[in-house]
Write a sequence for this structure.
């Protein structure tokens, strides 16, 4: 299960990351509302945990933007704003639960587990066009043909499949696949996109990885195939 924590207090964000990873969750963090919204609207997370008072975009606006994109990912708001009208505004903005700071970690974990249970079974295959990515075996499948992906190819392909027709910038792919502290550059993304294009062709996929100038990459389905 993948959780996105959007919290401008970096010490709190880090402590949440450590706590949740110790419980077996995969956790990513963002430290301002605009970055958090960009990540959240990808629709690849099982849960969003967000603060209300943040720079660039507050949690209420972030939740409304996510819901406007028809993203149904559960949202848990963590905030020091404990007034009744604050809670009402948060829930009306699209939050599923509103937990005030300071909070007990046991209550936090109980809320997270309750929200995730509503999501049902975890998806183990991503599909686009006539092609599927088996998440358990890192295998691209098209009809009776299949090809295994390397770990890095798998991470890039999964991101692209989850985003679909939505453009992913090279910077976004770099940060999500290689990490913010990596020495990798945009050329690394281009190289792995090239690898994936060859593998898609090798199995007869009708899915194409298209480049949009200055916007990054997105997927298209070739109707002629």
């Amino acid at each position: 299960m993948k959780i996105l924590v959007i919290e401008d207090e970096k010490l709190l964000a880090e402590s949440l990351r450590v706590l949740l990873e110790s419980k077996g969750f995969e956790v990513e963090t963002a430290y301002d509302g605009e970055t958090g919204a960009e990540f959240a609207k990808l629709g690849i997370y099982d849960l969003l945990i967000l603060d209300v008072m943040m720079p660039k975009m507050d949690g209420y606006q972030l939740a409304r933007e996510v819901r406007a994109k028809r993203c149904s990912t559960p949202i848990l708001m963590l905030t020091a704003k404990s007034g009744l009208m604050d809670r009402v505004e948060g829930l009306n903005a699209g939050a599923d639960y509103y937990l005030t700071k300071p909070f007990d970690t046991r209550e936090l974990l109980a809320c997270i587990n309750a929200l995730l249970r509503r999501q049902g079974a975890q998806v183990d295959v991503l599909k686009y066009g006539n092609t599927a990515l088996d998440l358990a075996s890192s295998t691209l499948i098209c009809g009776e043909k299949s090809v295994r992906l390397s770990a890095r190819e798998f991470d890039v392909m999964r991101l692209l499949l989850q985003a679909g027709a939505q453009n992913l910038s090279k910077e976004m792919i770099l940060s999500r696949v290689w990490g913010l502290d990596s020495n990798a550059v945009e050329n690394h993304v281009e190289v792995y996109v090239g690898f994936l294009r060859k593998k898609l062709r090798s199995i007869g996929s009708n899915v194409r990885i298209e480049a949009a100038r200055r916007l990054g990459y997105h997927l298209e389905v070739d109707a002629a195939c």
